[in-house]
Amino acid sequence: KIGKRDSIASIFAVDESPEAEEIPQPKAYFSIVRYKRALSQDSFLGLIYTGREQEERYNRVFGSDGQIRLSQSSVLNLHAFGSFSRESDASPEAEGHVFGADYFYDTRKLEVSLAVQDISRDFQTDTGYITRTGLSRFSAAFVRKFYPRSKFLRRIAPAVYTSQLKDQPSGLYETENSLSLNFVAVRSTRLTLAYIYSTEVFLAQRFNTSGWIVQTGSQLTKFFTFSISLRNGKAIRYSEAPFQARGTRAASSVVFQPSEKINLTLNFTYSDLYRDSDSEKIYDYSIARTRLTYQ
């Protein structure tokens, strides 16, 4: 920490090849440097550098981020990064970027969030993980909260969400739009009912992924909690020759913790998939898992 407002943090690591590899690879050197300048309230501005060097191969990311407290109820987050990568001396340097801005407004009765994001196709970060590149997206969510005069029901919150995304490689657009009704009751009981109209671009094709969702959970006693989620609707058969499908996904979890030292968790997952055109079953499976922990 430098003074009252400034701080610097850094990490350096050397990554060696696994001993099982027949042809050992050169060592890779990772470095991360973070500078942060504290402003008023919880606002801040920061600079970040991450790098991975492995002989002639490298990946370097530079950028800045920040948070600006606009009011007691609203905050703005910003980030912008550029990446510079090369696979070998014979390959050209690839440049990429990512930019994002998020606005949040939260009061007892209303929540609003707005976000924009742009990630270029060639953006790369070897020190982190990014699920998808080559997209531009705008999203917005509005939640209205009601507090009924009830000893059981604590809050009712209808919500509207929309996300519009452009897939840069294909030039196609995908969308996600949902209406949901959320209930909060005693004993941390929660229930969500939602319908989603959505599409997804996969291998330069647009598929329908709409469906409905039910989620619930509760802490019935001091020692016993459970959660259940169910989704049914359109889906994608992810393969080299993808096609429109439909299916159901369900998951449940039960936790029994009679003391601080003992925890018994039971998980169950089910999923199936059918071809949408002729109802041919592609697969169905169930997974049950039990874990007992004593510490």
Note the topology.
Blueprint lengths: L5 E10 L12 E11 L5 E11 L2 E13 L4 E13 L7 E13 L3 E10 L15 E10 L8 E15 L5 E13 L3 E14 L2 E4 L2 E9 L4 E14 L5 E14 L5 E14 L5 E14 L1
Antiparallel strand pairs: 1-2, 2-3, 3-4, 4-5, 5-6, 6-7, 7-8, 8-9, 9-10, 10-11, 11-12, 11-13, 13-14, 14-15, 15-16, 16-17
Word description of this protein:
It is a single chain. With 295 residues, this protein is an all-beta fold. The protein has no helices and 17 strands. It has strands at residues 6-15, 28-38, 44-54, 57-69, 74-86, 94-106, 110-119, 135-144, 153-167, 173-185, 189-202, 205-208, 211-219, 224-237, 243-256, 262-275, 281-294. The protein has a 17-stranded antiparallel beta sheet that branches. A hairpin with a 5-residue loop joins strand 15 and strand 16 (262-275). It is globular, with a radius of gyration of 24 Å.
Order of helices and strands: EEEEEEEEEEEEEEEEE
Give the helix proportion (percent range).
Answer: under 10%
Residues in β-strands, percent: over 45%
Spatial shape: globular
Reported for the largest beta sheet, the result is: 17 strands, antiparallel
Structural class: mainly beta
Find the count of extended strands (DSSP E, 2+ residues): 17
Counted by DSSP, the helix tally is 0
Mean pLDDT: 95
Low-confidence stretches: none
Distance N terminus to C terminus? Answer: 36 Å
Query: From the alpha-carbon coordinates, what is the Rg to the nearest angstrom?
Result: 24 Å
